Amino acid sequence: MKLNVAVLMGGWSAEREVSLVSGAAVANTLKDEGYRVTSIDVQRDMGALLTRLYPKPDAAFNALHGRYGEDGCVQGLLNILEVPYTHSGLLASALAMDKPAAKSLFAAQGILVAEHIIAGREDFAAGISMDPPYVIKPLNEGSSVGVRVVRKSDNFKPEEESWFYGNEVMVEKFIEGRELTVAVMGDRALGVTEITTRHRFYDYDAKYAEGGSKHHLPAEIPADVADEAMRISVLAHQTLGCRGISRADIRFDGNDLYMLEVNTQPGMIPTSLVPEQAAYAGYSFAELVGWLVENATCD
After folding, report:
1. Based on the domain organization, do 102 and 203 belong to the same domain?
2. Considering 23, 32, 162, 211, which has the largest number of Cβ atoms within 10 A of its Cβ?
3. Is residue 255 part of a domain?
4. 235/91 Cα distance (integer angstroms)
């Protein structure tokens, strides 16, 4: 008999709407494959969530994106309940979501990362001590939420009241070049996609608005560059201790590959980057979702 699966979706992060779409796609596919499915729109009321998780399901499919669903919080709850769940565990999730911590670990493994500084609110208001172009980003958000690219021609004047993502921000050197992404399934890289967009950069709208970006799979890059992109993506996945599926975002400046971040809860509709790469590697969306469920575990 197929497993009884609770699909966790929604949440209350800035990526709620994306998560609802991912969760619905996963839930519908699991039902079509004969799994018993309970879809749960996760709210801040933990008592209500606990109620929905009893009697305990055989597994939870974590389709949450962003804070609280992707940063180790819900993973900790599921560990306590001893409910096996998909994707990465508590520690890997927390490390991946903490951009400075993840970059430190990558650099220690010899993976190139962009130069960055951490600025507090007062520092941010006083002025950025980095020559443009640079990127301002929250320390622990996903899907490019709150990200701004500042170029020399922008005449950007930072103001403390214009920032709403915590007491500190990351200011990172912007790497001119091409946007690459690599999905890792288990310990295997599935392929390399190049993402192009008419937007100033691959921002939230470019990711999710219709026609906001184009996916080129396989990326038209030299074979040795593709091999290296996949190697460092697997290495980053293993360095953080990820399991299940992750997706590495990389910039290629024509000479070097720079690891930007690893996403432990990538989008999960059939046209998302990871399912596209899975299909390229020979896995249908149903097979991908089923593999995640069948390999669910606790930390």
Report:
1. yes
2. 23
3. yes
4. 17
Could you give the CA distance from residue 148 to residue 52 in angstroms, rounded to a whole number? Answer: 38
Same domain membership, residue 107 and residue 189: yes
Q: Identify the pLDDT of residue 253.
A: 96
Catalytic residues: 15, 143, 208, 247, 249, 261, 263, 267
Specify the pTM. 0.89
CA 206, CA 214: separation in Å to the nearest integer?
A: 9
Domain membership of residue 259 as a residue range:
95-113+175-264
> Is 256 contained in some domain?
yes
Residue 221 lies inside a defined structural domain of this protein: yes
99 & 234 share domain: yes
Q: Which amino acid is at 275?
A: P
Question: Which residues have CB under 8 Å from 69's CB, separation 6+?
Answer: 8, 11, 13, 19, 42, 62, 265
- Over residues 159-216, the pLDDT tens digits come to 555 555 567 888 899 999 999 999 999 999 999 999 997 645 444 444 444 555 799 9
90, amino acid identity: L
Alpha helix (H) residue ranges in the chain:
16-32, 46-52, 73-81, 90-97, 99-108, 121-126, 204-208, 223-240, 273-280, 285-294
* Separation of alpha carbons 99 and 137, rounded Å: 9
